[in-house]
Amino acid sequence: MNPINSKKTPLTFDTIEPGTGLAAALTKSRADIIGEVAASNLRGRGGAGFPTGTKWNLAAAAGVREGGSKYVVCNADEGEPGTFKDRVLLTDYADLVFEGMTIAARAIGATKGILYLRGEYVYMRPHLDGVIDKRRKAGQLGTNILGTAGFTFDIEIRMGAGAYVCGEETALIESLEGHRGEPRNRPPFPVNTGFMGQPTVVNNVETLASVAAILSKGAPWFKAFGTEKSAGFKLFSVSGDCDQPGVYEFPLGITVTQLLQTVGGANAKAVQIGGASGHCVPTSNFGRKLAFEDIATGGSIIVFGRGRDMLHVAKNFMEFFVEESCGQCTPCRAGNAKLLEGIEKLQHGSCSTAYLQELLALSETMQLASKCGLGQSSPNAFVSIVTHFQDEILGRAAAV
Q: What distance in Å separates the CA atoms of residue 55 and residue 159, rounded to the nearest whole number?
């Protein structure tokens, strides 16, 4: 597979005829649909990388509470800094996304679907409503879909309100229910007790589009891309100090060096992989692979050139997390503020090396004790920058 920029060359999704995945799914039993997805080794494309087939199997086995129904929720709350791949999919491949939701509904026995759309993407709403309406008229949504007796499923769009934490699936569900977007305690998990207390599958936009492709062309076709542990192709949002930023498609397993050569970032000083919550990779590690078994990512790639001040980069990320923390748990609420305070001390030359070590210890506590992925991952950039750019950072630490 050749790496491609979506602005210049069609993505692999262009080879998928809309409707073929759903048609193939309707010839299979629910168990066989899940089996096909599981056989493809598809893992969540939002960043967490949980096996999609496993999630669907758990939801399929869960019982519905009296008077309720199961739900399929598409997480389109694309709030990770440096990530804009889902915007491309929703603009150009919405049919495949909704088709993936419909296939998921068939697999788990859901009757209702919700697209949770990022508040800043409100301008997409008329386009997406139009695609849904077209699918209803074509019999691909509604009652007895494509003549399949008893298969009823429809999709509605709900808007987010710009909260980063609502990218976390249980905070997203809280928001859908009209509550403040705060993560829930787990267990129970959404596959058992999700939206309105009913079994709910929450999948990323790219995951669902990939499902439509897999059912259309088969699990072996999908597994032919990527590595043994990281099957398939992946979209990457590339920005920063490179000649050709944009949305690119690569097979999983590509190295950082190979990606940089393609986007015109060969002289990079560092690459932030996974957005603000990801890891900052120095030149010495550019041989590492973008794959679940090495550096996992939801798709954000931010390139930093030689002239970048890495402490300023760390400060920028920490200011973001201080602003976006929901404040529910102490490690995240207080910890992010302390890390930002430490970065400011470093900038002013008033942070001792001993205090810097305490901040690193605090980061470890946050990673272990925070309630959700926001607090667990927010120290990543700080820790990786301090670790890999010691000459640049320690030169600003006071000797005391």
A: 24
pLDDT at 1: 45
H/E stretch holding 247 reads: strand 246-251
Q: What is the pLDDT of residues 344-397, one digit of tens each?
A: 999 988 888 899 999 999 999 999 999 999 999 999 999 999 999 988 887 666
Per-residue pLDDT of 156-176, as tens digits, reads: 999 998 899 999 999 999 999
CA pair distance 56, 105, nearest whole angstrom:
9
Q: Quote the CA–CA distance of 306 and 166 in Å, as a whole number.
A: 34
Distance CA 385, CA 375 (A): 17
Residue 2 clears pLDDT 60, i.e. is over it:
no
Residues contacting 107, CB < 8 A, separation 6+: 25, 30, 33, 34, 37, 56, 60
CATH of 234-304, picked from 3.10.20.600, 1.20.81.30, 3.30.70.100, 3.40.120.10, is: 3.10.20.600
The secondary element (H helix, E strand) that includes residue 115 is strand 110-117
The topology (CATH level 3) of 310-398 is de novo design (two linked rop proteins) (1.20.1440)
Separation CA 289–CA 243 (nearest Å): 22
Q: What are phi and psi of 167, to 5 degrees?
A: -70, -20
Fold of the 8-223 domain: Rossmann fold (3.40.50)
Residue 10 and residue 7: Cα distance in Å, rounded? 8
Report which of 325, 319, 400 is spatially closest to residue 356, judged by C-alpha positions.
400
